[in-house]
Amino acid sequence: MGQTITRHGNNLLTLINQILDLSKLKSKQNTLEYHNGNIVGYIHTIVEGMRELARRKGLLLLFSPEKQSIMMDFIPDHITKIVTNLISNAIKFTPEEGHIFVTADIEGDKFKMIVADNGHGIDINELPHIFDAFYQGRNSKLETGSGVGLSLVKQLVETMSGNIEIRSAEEAG
After folding, report:
1. Are the C-beta atoms of residues 79 and 43 closer than 8 Å to each other?
2. From CA 99, how far away is CA 41, in angstroms rounded?
3. Smallest Cα–Cα separation from 149: which of 5, 10, 8, 16?
4. pTM of structure
């Protein structure tokens, strides 16, 4: 019982922090602190931290970058929130014994990261709304969520002059 209360309390704290982050981004009150470093190594650390969560659900979580080192400027806090949200969603909506693949590469002067899974997928009619704040699609009834995470991810990506897109098909991930 105590673990359940703690887990729900932590989930609520995460939600509040995400709403605050969205508010800060929209009001442009945060300062961007870019750091130069190996983004592949940084993402590897985040993925490793999430591997146990995936394992507990019976999922295979793999990080397979094209290069072991990509030196670039990035905002560590933004990357942490982006990767954590994307992988958390993949874990949430991928059935037991499924798999999640994370790849990273550089294309021209752009860094590209892909999070792919063999989960439930998203209905084509829901795709245009997936990054809207508080949007919860039909699959959200299978799992709890607030509809804040992907909106935050989009804002963080755009803050770093990037773009994000989704490709999905129902029952195909």
Report:
1. yes
2. 21
3. 16
4. 0.79
